[in-house]
Amino acid sequence: MNIKLLKKLGEFNKDEVVLDYDNTIIFTEKEGCKMTYKRDYGYQPGVGILNEQNVLYIENRNGNSDAKAFQLDTLERMFQHLKDNNISRIDKFRADAASYQYDVVKLVEKNVTSFYIGARNSYVEKYFALIEDWIKTKDQTGEDVYIGEIEYRPFAQQGNRDNKYRLLVKKN
Question: Which of 75, 101, 118 is the last residue of a domain?
Answer without folding.
Answer: 118
